[in-house]
Amino acid sequence: MKSSGCIDQILVSSQYTLKEVFRLLDKTGDSVLLLVDNNGILQRTVTDGDIRRLLLAGFDLNDTLTQLPEKNPITVEAGISDSDALTVMNKYEVSQLPAIDGNGRPVALYLRSDIQPRILLSIPHMGELEKKYVEDAFQSNWIAPQGPNVDGFEQEIAEYVKTGHAAAVSSGTAAIHLALRLLNVGVGDTVFCSSFTFVASASPILYQGAQPVFIDSEPDTWNMSPQALERAFQASIATGQKPKAVIVVHLYGQSAKISEIMTICDCYNVPVIEDAAESLGGLYKGRHTGTFGKFGIFSFNGNKIITTSGGGMLISEDRASIERARYLATQARMSEPHYEHTELGYNYRMSNVLAGIGRGQLAVLDERVSARRKIFAHYKQSLSDIDCLEWMPEPAGDYSNRWLTAVRLNHEKTDIRPSDIIAKLSYFNIEARHLWKPMHLQPLFSGAPYFYHSDVDFCKCLFETGFCLPSGSSMREDEIGFVVRKIKDIIGSW
Fold this sequence. Notes:
Number of helices: 17
Radius of gyration: 27 Å
Distance between the termini: 32 Å
């Protein structure tokens, strides 16, 4: 709460120009100013949104706040408790609340961000073991992108997912790029890729000068459709342009139908890269995602189920390929007594410090998965009476890590849109987010071939109807309960 001593800094009169207001908002770092009359009595609040609306209406930066429409401010009496102020904010869906004295003069400003910290979508969940490994790196002065933590992290990941070999790199994107390079994907080649995913799944295809071909999702997993994949193969064979690789994504922690996908790809003798960036700890029929294809990749970005702050891992049963990946990721430096390079390499190796964080995080991965699964179950059970909500499925035999709680709206039962829910949750300092916008709808990939699951563009439907809820493994039950109550309020009052 801003006290009376700070309030003077955000008071403006009707003679302030729009430019002056913008400058004051920028200087104070506040999201709101208080417009008062000549007697210091509060007239209304002023936000940057109010100024933008005036500019869009044709007013000039040199116009004054006299152009603002009258607006009775929502206020409270000075001295109320934070909890009472928050109740008023929730009632009127505001994030700033002026407190006035008996004469109508502002004496304080309650801010939602001070009273109720923002509930974020997916934040890092750090423990104590990470510090030990990082301290070891400092004590030994192993800071560079080599060292015992890197070796240990690679070995421990390989043992955890029960695969042969692993290479720790700077990001999941780097791991996909290396996989494509190892498969000799180049200019003129095509690569099949899930359309419903984050851009990092597909961008490395362009790095190699190849052409992406996007594959729709299917309803059972929201991941790559085997039917669409088969049609894409048939079309490619007919044109003599068989793909060099297939990138299948296990989205939001849920495995794709990997057995069916592997059967199809094996039939056409095309290698599979599993983008398991979001699904570490997830299982398909008892086996870890990322271990079915020629290569698997994981991400340890700051919002993932475990994190190194930024990093990734390339895994494979092929020892020679992983050794070559490490070589390419270290600028393709030859083993000479001087710097010798005969081919293009990359600066993709993970540092020993970050690998130490990863080792500490990996030790509690199963706990993190369990926590996120409980959060998903809590949401689903608590909101089970809202029949327009449809939750991301988990087929029998699968075990999703539930990295994010993903849900969609049945538009036959409601006309509320994800953007409405996301915007209204934001009023209450709750971060929610749209599902991924499919790659075939992205301007970057305009014109890329795309194969539907059926007569409906399913992943487009998912994007238009779905959203993600806060899912961090460190979320408290009261935070989950607050999100649940707000969703019920929003949908119930629609």
